[in-house]
Design a protein that fits this description.
Length: 76
Amino acid sequence: MTEVSLDDRGRFTLPKQFREEYGDRFQVVRLDDGLKLVPVAEDPLEALRDEFADVDKSADELRDDAREQALDEAGS
């Protein structure tokens, strides 16, 4: 775990190791117990393509599967 402090203008600097691993752009997400920094990809569309590259089904097929699963879990 690494501790960082805010300067007099409310800024903090991430250690170099984190910047090298995660980049230099983040979304700040408020949680019940604190904040979370979520890295923002340099090319968000490319990141989504990479994330779902191994998905063989279309969006319609995925939606239909999710609907069927939800109905099964609801007991219908």
